[in-house]
Amino acid sequence: MNKLQELGKSLRLRVLSSHLGAGVVSNQTRHMASEQEAALVAKPDEDKPTVFDKILNKEIPSTVVFEDEKVLAFRDIAPQAPTHIVIIPKIKDGLTGLSKAEERHQDILGHLLYTAKVIAQQEGLSDGFRIVINDGPAGCQSVYHLHVHLLGGRQMNWPPG
Fold first, then answer.
1. Where is the active site (predicted)?
2. May I ask the CATH class of domain 31-152?
């Protein structure tokens, strides 16, 4: 996160804290609020590289846990569970979100889910795991490059949102 992003996050958290009272806002609530805000201001732009494009190009470091010819998987920098891995297609091909999927994307969509299963086994998530795909502002999507979140290592709650 660059200094401008850190400042923006800090300001958002102060505003949220001031509305709810000091000490009332948990770290999880802070992250959720900043993710919701980020999703509301994020705009899909095919011409502008996303943070995931920069990770693929090795411009931004990541902790890679799996890679093949079609996908890259790495640990999330703001984990929401003991195991939180992001799985992305290496070629975006118009897939800024799941709602943009076309018939020609069936292979990569299936590969993303199968890869999640392989990684879950690799990570020892034999008790279960959750797959999340955020789509659009109301779905809390803040990066417009289709990605799958693999979450595990704790009991998940229902409903999720």
1. 147
2. alpha beta
